[in-house]
Amino acid sequence: MSKITTELLLERAVPKSTRLRKIETLNLSKLQLKTGDLDPRLFSRLRHLQKLDLSDNLLDKFPNSLNLPDLRVLNCNNNKLEDVTALKQFPLLEELTYENNMFLTLNDDYKVMFLLQNLRLLNGKDITKLANHVRNVNSLKLTSKVTAHWEKFFRDQLPEKHTAEQVKAIQKKFLKSVQTNVVYGPSSLSEFTRWRVKMIAEEFLACSLGLELNTNAEPEEKMDEDKEESTKSPSEAAGDVGQVETLCRSWQYALQVTVTPSKRKRKNSKPSSSKKRSKSQANAEEGDAEDVSAEPLHFLQCHSKGNSREDFKTELWAGVFEPLLDSGARKDPIVSSSRTVATCGGESVCLIDCETGTVLKKYKVAAEVFFSVAWTTLTMTISNSQKKSHNILAAAGRRGIVKLIHVAADFCYGEIKAHKKPIATVCFSPTRETHLFTASYDKRIALWDIGIPDCDYNFKASQLLVLEAISIPLRLALVPMSPEQYLLAGCEDGCFAWNIKLDKKQKNRPFEAAFQFPDEDGGMTTSHSVDGLAFLNDDVVVSKSSKPGCIYLWSWSRSFDTKEKGCQQTVSAVILAELEWSTTDHPYLTLSTCPAKGYVFCGDEKGSIWMYNLSNHTRAWSSAKGKHSDRCIPPTQILKWPELRVPGEQLSEVLVNNVVPDPTFTYLVVLTSVNIAAIWKKS
Fold first, then answer.
1. Residue 3 backbone zone (phi > 0: left; psi -120 to 50: alpha; other: beta)
2. How many Cβ atoms are within 10 Å of 174's Cβ, its own excluded?
3. One Pfam family name from the record (predicted)?
4. Is 468 helix (H, G, I), strand (E, B) or coil?
C-alpha cells in the first residue's frame, strides 16, 4: 500500500490545506518514500503545486507522468536517483537540487540544463550563463557535426528510390556510427555528448527521411481545461503548452498530391508540381486588364502535427519572404527578397524554397500554435571581434512567447515572454532592426527592443512601449511615411492609430485615432472587425472587414490630417475605392499587397485568389483631388483552386487564410485551412 494518501498530502502542505488543488508548497521529506509511492493519479490533482520537497527519501527515479504543470522548485537531496531525464516533465522548473545522490554525475547536470529551459539554480548555483551555452553553442556545434557526418559517410548510401527496409537499415547504422565518431568537449562529458548526439541524429533523420522521432524526446502537457481562460485563436485553434524544440534540415518532406485543374495524368513524384498554366479571367478595370499567367508549382504539407500525412486540419496562418543579406534590404525592398519563404501554422515554422518546393528547414515547438512570423537583419559580432549580418526570424503564437531563430545557424537562440495570452501578429520596424511589435489577445500591442546576441547567444530584450487597445489587435501596419511615429492596427472592433514616437515619456499609451467606415445602412461606424490591413504605397491603405466582407482603399494622410493635433479623436476614413470581393462572412481571411507592382491579393472561402492590379488607380489617387470611385473595382483576375486528389481524403472546404507575394511578384504562397501551402509562380 502506498505511503502517500490524500490525508497525508493535506497534512504536509505548507500551510495545511483542505483541498489538493489549493496546495502550492508541499513537504514530503524524510518519509522513506520509494518511486512506487509517487502515485501519478494522486499527484495529478496537485495542479497548482509550485514547491516540492522530496529530500531524504529512497527514490531511484521519477515516474514519467506526475503531471505537476506549475512546479517551479524541486528538492531531491539525499536520495538514490540514477537518472534525471524524467525531470523534463516539469518544464517550468526554475530551482533544482539533488545533492548527495551518489549515482548522478556532471553529465546529469548538463542533461537537466538542456532539458529544463527555465532552470536558473542547480544545487544552489546560478547556472544561467552555462545553461545558455549548453542549449545554444553546444547544440549548434553538435548539430553541425552530426550533419557533416551524414553528408560525408551516409548520404550516398541511400538509393534515390529506397524501400522502408533500406531506410531502417541506414538509420540503425547511422545512429551507431554518429554516437561513436562525433566527439566534442572534455572526456568527462562524453556520456552527455553521446546522449545529445543521438537526440540530434534522430531529429535529423525525422526531418530528412520522414522517420518518426523517438517518443522520449519531450512530453506534451495538457492544459488545465477547467482553469485555462478561453482565448479564441483565429479559428479557435486549441493547443497544449509543450517544450519540444527541433530545428533541422529537410530534404523533401511534402504532400504528394495529384493536381488536376484540367485533364491530366496522375503523378506520383516528389512534391507535386504542375507545368500546365492555369488561367482564370475576371472583369477588369480599363487599363488594368493584365491577364497574369501563373502556374501552380507545389502543394506542400509540411506543417503536419507529428509529421502525419493524414493531417488536413492544421491551419496555416502567415508567411514572409526572407530578405537577401547583400541587397540593402531596408533601402530597396524591390530587390531585397530571396525565393525562400518562412511559413507558420500548427506547431511548426518552415522555410521553403519556392522554386524547388524543398522544405529547407523546420522548427517545431510541440503543442504550440504559431500565428505569425517576421524577419529582421542583425549585425552580430562573431569570433575575433568581426561583424557579420545575419537574418533573424521571430515566430509567435498561442503561448504568447516570441521565439528568435538564427536561421543560418539552424538555431533558436532565445525567447521573449511577451504576453500572457496568444500573440496574433508580429512585425519589425523597417528603420530600427531590433524593434519588434507584438499584438496580443490581451488587447495590448507591445514594442520590444530584442537586442543583438553576442557570440555566445546571450542577449537582453527590453519593453519600450505598451499600446492599449479596446479590442483584440489582429493586423499591424507601420505608416511608411513615418514608421517611427505612427502605427495602424486592425482590431476585432475597429481600426486605430497610435503615436509610437519614443521621445515621449509616456510608456503606456491609448490610441490617438479611431477610423470610421461606411456601414451596411449607409452611415459611418467605428465598430467593425478589421482582419486585413496593409499599405499599397506610402499613403494608400487597404483594409478588409470580415463583416460585411468588403475591402476598402483609403488615404492615410487625408484621413489623419483631419484630426486635431495631440488629441484622441474619431475620424472618417477618406475612401478612395472599394474592391469587389467574396460575399463570405468567414473571418481572418487576410489580404496582402505588392507595392512595387501595385497589386492587392486576397483569398476566399473556396480556395481562390483574387488579384487586383491597381497601378493605374494609384497614380490618380496620388492627386489630392482624387475622388472616391462610385463603383466597386472588380478583380483583375481570379486564380481558381485546382482539383487536388489526395488518397483517402476529400478536401471539401479550402479557406485561404493568407496570400503572400514576394516583392517582385514572382511567387505567390497560398496558406490554407487544410494544412496545404500552395506555391504559384508568375510566368
1. alpha
2. 23
3. LRR_LRWD1
4. strand
10 φ, ψ to 5°?
-65, -35
The pair phi, psi for residue 421, each rounded to 5°, is: -125, 170
* CATH 2.130.10.10 matches 295-323+337-442+473-682: yes
Between 648 and 575, where is the model more confident?
Answer: 575
Find cell 460575399 and name the residue: 583
Give the C-alpha separation, 177 to 174, whole Å.
5
DSSP state of 137: I
Assessment of whether the complete model's pTM goes beyond 0.85: no
Name which of 169-183, 332-346, 380-394 the model is least confident about: 332-346
Structure confidence at residue 55 (pLDDT): 96
- Percent residues over pLDDT 70 in the chain: 82
How far is residue 155 CA from its own chain's centroid? 30
Half-sphere exposure of 597 (CA within 13 A, CB side): 21
CA distance 577 to 632: 7
pLDDT tens-digit series, residues 352-362? 999 989 898 89
Q: Which amino acid is at 365?
A: V
* CA–CA distance, 67 with 4 (Å, rounded to integer): 16
Q: Who's near 57: CB < 8 A, 6+ residues apart?
A: 28, 29, 30, 31, 32, 33, 34, 78, 79
Backbone phi and psi for residue 671, each to the nearest 5 degrees, phi listed first? -105, 125
Cell of 362: 523546420
Q: What is the distance between the alpha carbons of residues 549 and 352, in angstroms, rounded to a whole number? A: 31
pLDDT per position as a tens digit, 45-94: 998 999 999 999 999 998 888 889 899 999 999 999 999 999 999 999 99
Q: Is the peptide bond before 480 cis (omega within 30 degrees of 0)?
A: no
- Whether residue 464 contacts residue 449, with contact meaning beta carbons closer than 8 Å, is answered with yes
The answer to whether the CB of 394 falls within 8 A of the CB of 402 is yes
6-104 topology per CATH: 3.80.10
State how far the alpha carbon of 27 is from the alpha carbons of 17, 92, 229, in Å: 12, 19, 30
pLDDT, mean of residues 207-221: 47
In eight-state DSSP terms, residue 166 is: H
Q: Is 312 left (phi over 0), alpha (psi -120 to 50) or beta?
A: alpha
CB 676 within 8 A of CB 300: yes
Q: In terms of Cα–Cα distance, which of 621, 676, 657, 648 is closest to 318?
A: 657
Q: Which residue's C-alpha cell is 493531417?
A: 311
Q: What is the DSSP letter of 256?
A: -
Neighbours of 141 (CB within 10 A): 14
Structure confidence by residue, pLDDT tens digits, 534-554: 999 999 999 998 666 689 999
| Position 33, amino acid | L
Cβ contacts of 39 within 8 Å, gap of 6 or more: 2, 4
